[in-house]
Design brief:
Order of helices and strands: HHHHHHHHHHHHHHHHHHEHEEHEE
Distance between the termini: 70 Å
Strand order of the largest sheet: 1-2-3-5-4
Structural class: mainly alpha
CATH class of the domain at 478-600: Alpha Beta
Radius of gyration: 35 Å
Largest sheet: 5 strands, mixed
Amino acid sequence: MKSRINSILILLWVVLLLPLNSYSKAIDSSAWNRVRSLIEEADSVYQKDISEAEILLDSAFGLVVEPLDSLLYNKLLSDMGYIQQVKGNYEDAIKLFRKSFNFTEAMGNKAKMSSAYLNFGNLYYLINDFERSKENTWLSIKYLNESNSSPRFYSNRYNVLALNHFDNDELDSALFYYTIGLTKLKQDSLSTAYSYRAIYDNIGQLFEIQTKYKEAIGFYRKSLEISLNNELSEPIIWTSQKLIRIFLSEDNRDSASKYIQLSKIWRPKLANKETELDLLKVEIEFYAKYLNEDSLKLKLDLYTTLSQELIEAKTLSNIQEMEVKYQLERNANELALAQQKTATLEQVNTNQRIILYLFFIGTSFLLILILLIRRYYLQKRKVSLLELEVKDKKLNELMSNQEADILAAMIQGQETERNRVARDLHDRLGGTLAALKLSLRRPENKIAAEDLQIVDQAVQEVRDISHNLSTGVLEKYGLNDAIEQLRKTVERSGGVKFNVYLHSSIAKLGQNITLELYRIVQELVSNTLKHANASEISIQTNMNKDVFNLIYEDNGKGFDPKFVKSGIRLENIKSRINKIDGAIHWDAAKGRGTIVVVELSNLQV
């Protein structure tokens, strides 16, 4: 009944306002078609000439008319914001991105919301606000998941996450996200060469910092190949400089000379004098290292001349920018005058419609009053429901805290029971078996060698089970030896190869942390052996300053985390991670195994 009354009120409202809507303005399709054409032209030239793209978008802004085409105007704001970001005008960029975000939020398009948050993620990264950058980038991934977009769109999101970790010297985490981004690109046949080039350069830079020059050279060469195929002069010069510096550090004169010659070919096509100046610095380093005085003097002279030209060009650019601002202000004043004349004309037309509007004012007021009264009662009811919801939420939080305490107590009980069972196995059953073995070896007992081997095997298995249950090995020898013992036990069972790469500094971790880490490893190994059908397991530990990483990987059948219910083992792992203030990342998919990364930060070692 209520829905029927609402429908009647809305229908009456539409009928009453229909004459007013007939006077609304239609979108000027011809003007917005010209705007669309300029935006598309700017997109086509952006990679090769950013200044030309900016001029085209400026021209498009000059054609903007009311009423707005929201989709096109939103893209225009976003594209210009990105150009200002690349040029380093961050305040202008964030203003444009915020305007674009308002239009995007009103439209409710998930894919465009993802792009809007990515704009903020990129921008905050460039101004070194890494926490806000990661927050906005994860929101971008969230909306991308909801929009069912293609895999290639995830690449630049994970690239931004990796860059944030890279600038914080979290190189393992950075490589982890770079790898995910590159994997996403390879999963989509529509991935562009430009996307590959960006991530190749970033991974190359990461390996260069780690002095893994062989890997860095491989990725830089992949990037350079893409730049050469697309004739991108700026990226060609940038990547060539990176390769020249690596080969100079390795004293590889021939290879360094090769890329210097390549840079010379593309130097005339450079539009950016600053990039050319950076290239001259590298060439000066080369000729200084190999004592080519004539070439060194020539490059120093060119460097001096170019530096002076750059200073003069910036001065001239500032003057021209002031002239452009003056012209823009003048045009704005002329536009304001024209708008004022238009407003006056519209006022005259409005006066002619006043009689028509007055007819509807009384009825509209009555309808609004009815709707406000109804809204008041609905709001009152909504407040009551919210109060009940708050009480329910508090009750749920209390129950959740109680469940956490119960789980922690259960884990502690498990540890106590493990140690008790381990002692019983070792002291009682182990001693009994040892005595049995000695008794069987007496000369008067005619026992086959095979039977003695069975007894030896039983003794060994009791010892292995005791060690796995107890923390004795862990307390006496440390985490590395405990994992080694676990590896031997698993490999002795047959069918699974177990690789370990353990960092020596792991011994500096506290006893509580090493115990929890060892139990987490046991849970992961147990899951793999029971469910994954894997033939190989790998464990790697890394310690970088006050950050510890444990990377667990198997080549099993994998799983989809979205469809896996949380069981006791997973809850144990989560509880142990929370207990040591750590974080855990799962990278799993059906058919390609599982990767688990445990990360501990701000360690006092």
